[in-house]
Structures are given as structure tokens and as C-alpha cells.
Design a protein that fits this description.
Layout: E1 5-10, E2 14-19, E3 24-28, H1 33-36, H2 40-43, E4 47-48, E5 52-55, E6 60-63, H3 64-68
């Protein structure tokens, strides 16, 4: 069974995602700097796909799997530090 996003909303500091299995999950916007810095209009231009969320104008993609795993966006944190 593939769990997909059904709805997305934001409050002042949190991303909320409703899933196809009935769960609602939350993640701090601080985990996603592009979303944190975005305007409400930019945040609301999200595209839902079978496996995640996409913001074309922000070049941001978040998978349902990473949200469920509690994994923040590591692209701006120097993912090569452990090399």
C-alpha cells in the first residue's frame, strides 16, 4: 500500500500533511529552509503526487517517506561533512 498526501496546510511554524491512510503528520518549517523563507502564496502552490510534495517555484521536494521518518532537508546543511 502506498501512502500519499491528500492535503497540505501551514501554520506559523509548522507544515501539516494529511495522508491517505487518515494520519496527519507535522514537521517544523525550520527543517525546510526554502519553505520557511517562502511567502504564503509560494507555500500554497504545492503539487501533491503519489509519493510526496513538490513546489516548482521553490525547487523543493518532500517525500512522504522522509516526513514519516522525521528526516529534515539536509541539502543546505553540508551533507558532505561526514566524507
Amino acid at each position: 500500500m502506498t501512502i500519499s498526501p491528500k492535503a497540505v496546510r501551514f501554520d506559523e511554524d509548522t507544515l501539516w500533511v494529511s495522508l491517505s491512510d487518515g494520519r496527519k503528520i507535522a514537521a517544523p518549517l525550520a527543517w525546510f529552509p526554502r519553505l520557511l523563507d517562502a511567502s504564503p502564496e509560494q507555500r500554497n502552490s504545492v503539487e501533491l503526487s503519489r509519493g510526496g510534495l513538490h513546489w516548482e517555484g521553490l525547487d523543493e521536494d518532500i517525500s512522504v517517506a522522509s516526513l514519516l521518518a522525521g528526516q529534515p532537508d539536509l541539502t543546505r546543511r553540508g551533507a558532505r561533512q561526514a566524507a
